[in-house]
Design brief:
HU Protein, Chain A, three-stranded antiparallel sheet, two-stranded antiparallel ribbon, about 30% strand, DNA binding, Hist_DNA-bd, IHF-like_DNA-bd_dom_sf, Histone-like_DNA-bd_CS, DNA condensation
């Protein structure tokens, strides 16, 4: 498994990235958090789940989550629109919906562009 680097930014936020560009799954992330923070995988898993649950909870409540240097998670409202059924070509109504969105912060953009 490629090494995942962790760096602390100006506000002690942890930035995790894979130097080889491979896709990481949740288990990989948990393993790297456990290693970086000197935690058991079980405790790291609880911490990762708590972060994801906190972000999901804030967004489902209509809020946003700002992680300075990393990015902002928010909710975007999509208007109702017309679409087409790809099989039949029939016009269909696509209802309005809320979609999660993420805007990368400067620290993340800089890390990606190194």
């Amino acid at each position: 498994m490629p090494k995942l680097h962790s760096h602390f930014g100006t506000n002690n936020e942890i930035k995790l990235f894979n130097s080889e560009g491979d896709t990481l799954n949740k288990n990989d992330l948990i393993a790297k958090v456990a290693e970086a923070a000197d935690l058991s995988k079980a405790d790291a898993g609880k911490a990762v789940d708590a972060v994801f649950d906190s972000i999901s909870g804030a967004l489902s409540g209509g809020g946003e989550v700002r992680l300075v240097g990393f990015g902002t998670f928010a909710v975007a409202q999509r208007a109702a629109t017309k679409g087409r059924n790809p099989r039949t070509g029939e016009e269909i109504d696509i209802p309005a919906s809320k979609q999660p969105k993420f805007k990368a912060g400067k620290g993340l953009k800089d890390a990606v562009n190194k």
